[in-house]
Amino acid sequence: MHNFLSYKEASEKLALDQKVGQLFMPAVFINDTEEEVQQIEDLLRTHAIGAICFFHSRASAATNFEGKKKVVHNEHSYDRLRQLISRYQRAAQFPLLVAIDAEWGLAMRIENTNQYPYAITLGAIKENHQLIFEVGKQIALDCREAGIHWNLAPAVDINNNPENPVIGYRSFGDDKHKVLSKGKAYLEGMKSAGVLNAIKHFPGHGDTATDSHLGLPVIDKSMQELRDNELYPFSELIKQGVDAVMVGHLAVPVLDGSENPATTSSKIITDVLRTNLEFNGVISSDALNMHAVSKEYPIKGTLESAAFAAGMDMMCFSEHPREGIQNILNTYAEERIEASFKRIWELKEQAYTSEIKIQRTCDASELNKQLARESITELYQGANVVKQIKQSNFLNLSVENQKGNVFSKSVEKQFEKEHHILDLDSVGEIKKLITKHENVVLALFPPMVKPKNKFGFQTEILNFINEIIQQKNVLIYLFGNPYALDILQLHSSSNTVIAYQDFPEFQNVAYQHFLGQQKAKGKLPVKLKTLQSI
Fold first, then answer.
1. What SS3 string covers 360-376?
2. How far apart are CA 99 and CA 94, in angstroms?
3. Who's near 523: CB < 8 A, 6+ residues apart?
């Protein structure tokens, strides 16, 4: 067992201001300058900060969600991560709890690290919970090897709004039972490797068309509707035991008539989560720099104080920890501070005294192959579609992002059908080619995973894709978010194969499907507007 102070020892040793410092988890960034790193070290040294949460860069964090700053690629992010963890641990007055958002692996924040599928892809897998357990376990092992104790995952939001701009692909789907069972398998996988978890975004961020990075979503539902849906995965998982619950920046009028965001609502945090759902673990905020809440508290430290007053234990991505610490110290009773300190210290103790040693059973690539085979999904209107197109003089066409297109190149090699890339420079040429082909195999790689700006498709390209769909027999292989199908003008005879991810492993499985060597085993985990209208 590591030499880590017990709660009793820590409670006697730490002064009250140091206990308040333990409630703060400022953001730290892989690509910070040396000056910025030293500023964080000074904060850790002087204010007994309890935790840090890693992000890639200030340009990619929530404050830059509008994309005004350029995100710089860093080939050495992983090495830098480990170096910074070491530096920050040395600077801290007490051992830090190191956290990260790694819903689909460290690759969510760190280049050149293992990436696993998005939750929506796992949602397409039929009842193979062992595979999802394995994803949770592998991500946890990656975290542990890097020096990270706490993966702020999974999202157990039920994504029942196709217009959702921020959850969508991060949800296991729109069925509460499947969200619960898949979230449970993921959590058990993480737990098996000794990494802490946090289910999010309480009380449920799935049914909104507002992005809480930018504005305050309002979930306007009855209490019965919330119990039946949004609250269901949280309630059930809390009964089974979770380390932490992350509260989203959401207004829920039926829970708090003032329409305060959950972040600062004692009715939601204390009355619903702590009292009604009987959750006794750590309650963490979502990032406090997000505009849904940060814009409402222009005075430094007042947002942190308001969140604490509502019942929050951990102030994630606090932008003003010094002022926040002082406000809490000046305003709240020692008993209230001690209650949050106890929960957080016991969580740290759990992280630092874990003796779990577990071996990898497969590497990331092998696991991704298995996941690709189990998730690939057909949306067919007729039988033998692939066979008929393969035997025809089809056009091998793709719309690509920056990733390599293994699928179309494999089709070109095997069937001697030249691979044509549709972009603004080739539209004229493709229009001529289309006239000579009745059948088209279209590999679609949406430029963006989020629906903002039509998944990043240029308007002229999107219009041309829709023209082809209306005029020709098109077989689409979609390597991305299935919600992208909602911006395509599909009709009753349209045929689509959803591969969900653009990883080489998923493209290879899609190619095997095209060859007739791989059955489509997956099931679409969400309802698409497109399919309901045709």
1. CCCCHHHHHHHHHHHHC
2. 15
3. 124, 126, 377
Among residues 290, 328, 291, the alpha carbon closest in space to that of 307 is found at 328
First-to-last alpha carbon distance for the chain, in angstroms, is: 61
Sequence letter at residue 169:
Y
Examine the residue annotation and report whether 149 is marked as an active-site residue of this protein: no
User: Is 201 in the active site?
Assistant: no
Give me the residues paired with residue 282 across strands: 244
DSSP 271: I
| Whether residue 154 has a cis bond before it, omega within 30° of 0 | yes
Name residue 311's amino acid: G
pLDDT digits (tens, 9 = 90+) for 242-253: 999 999 999 999
User: Who wins on pLDDT, 529 or 191?
Assistant: 191
* pLDDT interval class at 206 (50, 70, 90): confident
Residue 220, amino acid: D
Q: For the full predicted model, state whether its pTM sits above 0.90.
A: yes
From the list 4, 2, 5, the residue with the least C-alpha distance to 13 is 5
List of residues 6+ apart from 82 with CB closer than 8 A: 146, 147
What are the residues facing 496 on neighbouring strands? 379, 476
Q: What's the rounded Cα separation, in Å, for the pair 494 and 17?
A: 63
Question: Mapped to the 3 state alphabet, what secondary structure does 447-507 carry?
Answer: CCCCCHHHHCCCHHHHHHHHHHHHHCEEEEEECCCHHHHHHCCCCCCCEEEECCCCCHHHH
Among left, alpha and beta (phi > 0; psi -120 to 50; other), residue 137 is alpha
Q: How does residue 1 score in pLDDT terms, banded at 50, 70 and 90?
A: very low
Beta-strand ranges (E) seen in 279-367 are: 282-285, 315-316
Distance, CA of 412 to CA of 415 (rounded, Å): 6
Whole-number Å distance between alpha carbons of 455 and 449: 6
Which residue, among 280, 332, 277, 335, has the nearest Cα to 309 in the 3D structure?
332
Name residue 379's beta-bridge partners.
496
Span 366-394, pLDDT tens digits: 999 999 999 999 997 666 888 899 999 99
What is the C-alpha to C-alpha distance for residues 65 and 87, in angstroms, rounded to an integer? 28
Strand positions, DSSP E, 243-380? 244-247, 282-285, 315-316, 377-379
129-146 helix and 364-375 helix, angle to the nearest 10 degrees: 150
Residue 495: φ, ψ to 5° = -130, 130
Tokens 């679409």 -> residue: 524
| C-alpha–C-alpha distance, residues 327 and 342, integer Å | 20
Q: Which of 205, 213, 437, 513 is catalytic?
A: 213
d(CA 373, CA 383): 20
Span 211-221, average pLDDT: 86
Of 286, 313, 486, 502, which one is the catalytic site residue?
286
Q: Residue 329, exposed/middle/buried by CB under 10 A (0-12, 13-18, 19+)?
A: middle
Read off the tokens for 71. Answer: 């995100």
- Quick check: 189 and 236 in contact, CB under 8 A? no
